[in-house]
Amino acid sequence: MEPIYRAEIVKFKGDERRIINDILVREIKLEILLNGKRFGALMATPSDLKALAVGYLLSENLISDPSGIRGIELAPDGLSVNVCGEINEKRLNSFDAEKVIISGCGRSSTANIDPEAMAARKVRSDAKFHKNEILNLMSEFYTQCELYEMTGCVHTAKLFTASGEYFIGEDIAQHNTIDKSVGKAVLAGHDTQGSLLLVSGRLSSEMVAKAVMSGVSALVSRTAPTSLGVVIARKFDLTLCGFARGENLNVYSGEERILS
């Protein structure tokens, strides 16, 4: 299934009226199965769906370690993905009681504000990032982002690993972009510890929590964090930066990792 959809629309430019074929981003409901049993669904863009499922399950601590994944199968229609492996049953059993509707796109659920699991993954990396390097990467943020260039209708995340590789996630839901970029890195055999994550949207609590659960050392956006996002970043020693534009960078947590 293509991640784009073509539709005939009317376009006005001044007094000129034209009928054109426009490119829209496609939106689907992706069913996630754990060992063949339906777990839930995500509203998503149909690209990198295996990576999305893996990243989501890891960030929610439903799978505690990538080595526990035995197989991933995407349905022929592209509307469901089955992940087989060692499931954190305690986490799974508590999910219905704890999950909330998050502030991302669609009616997505999460229970990832899990103090116990996050404490175990508290950021302890001694990685350093130069301020100018971050700003340069942010100035080139939308390069190589094919869906954004075609539609202008998706959020984007770029994960830069300590080994120098980077992985892009694009989706209608900004929290899905983190899951996709992390999932792609994990499936490619890369360690996400000590990595730098750039995102296009706000730094809300669930975005910060996903970064902590993924082993990211620094999370950076062109926009602002929420108050709870800052509280979580400070509690778990994540470097959190916002308003990364031009020569400006606001550091809300973990300034010791930022070199000037």
TrEMBL record:
The keyword Cell membrane does not apply. The active site is at residue 105. It comes from the Bacteria. The keyword Cytoplasm applies. GO terms for biological process: Mo-molybdopterin cofactor biosynthetic process. Keywords: Cytoplasm, Molybdenum cofactor biosynthesis. InterPro entries: Cytidine_deaminase-like (IPR016193), FdhD (IPR003786). GO terms for molecular function: sulfur carrier activity; sulfurtransferase activity. It is found in: Cytoplasm. One of its GO terms (cellular component) is cytoplasm. Pfam families: FdhD-NarQ. Belongs to the FdhD family. Required for formate dehydrogenase (FDH) activity. Acts as a sulfur carrier protein that transfers sulfur from IscS to the molybdenum cofactor prior to its insertion into FDH. NCBIfam families: fdhD_narQ, PRK00724.1-2. This is Sulfur carrier protein FdhD. The gene is fdhD.
